[in-house]
Write a structure and sequence with these properties.
By secondary structure, this protein is mainly alpha-helical. Helices cover about 35% and strands about 0% of the residues. It is built from 6 helices and no strands. The chain has helices spanning about 1-15, 70-75, 85, 95, 110-120, 125-145.
Length: about 150
């Protein structure tokens, strides 16, 4: 009843809403839906004559990214592919990749590996690398002593 009184009051004041010009409200009552005001108009939707309630926002395609084609990973991609061909498939490439002498046949966690590296090749390391190794050992020592099942 109140809606009828409101509509009559608007009509008397000259502010009556045009029946065709409004978009339908949603079921939840969440305001107007954005879409064509007069569906079925034979003009493209991008035309101002289509009667859309607001303009479409047209996104530009993303600009192509600058890619460094000569990173180490890309430059060395497939570098060992010819090992099987040149070697007559006698040996698998994984058998050619071996670790340092002081790690072969040895098992342990990262802290133990760093300590072993310091004992074996510490005297031959560069100063900066030796310093980084010592920092890593200090960090891992604290971490292993504070957390984990080995406490």
């Amino acid at each position: 009843m109140a809606a009828l009184v409101r509509a009559a009051g608007r009509a008397l004041l000259g502010r009556a809403a045009p029946l065709l010009g409004r978009a339908a409200r949603s079921i939840s009552g969440g305001g107007r839906r954005w879409g064509p005001v007069r569906p079925g108009l034979p003009v493209p939707l991008s035309s101002p004559l289509a009667g859309l309630t607001r303009a479409f926002r047209i996104k530009e395609p993303p600009k192509p990214k600058q890619v460094d084609r000569w990173t180490e990973k890309r430059a060395l991609f497939g570098v060992y592919d010819n090992v099987g061909i040149l070697g007559g498939f006698q040996i698998h490439p994984k058998n050619l990749i071996v670790g340092p002498k002081w790690l072969r046949g040895w098992r342990g966690n990262e802290l133990q590996r760093c300590i072993r590296k310091k004992q074996v090749v510490g005297d031959r390391m560069f100063v900066e690398d030796y310093h980084k190794l010592n920092k890593r050992i200090r960090y891992l020592y604290r971490r292993f002593n504070r957390t984990g099942k080995h406490r």
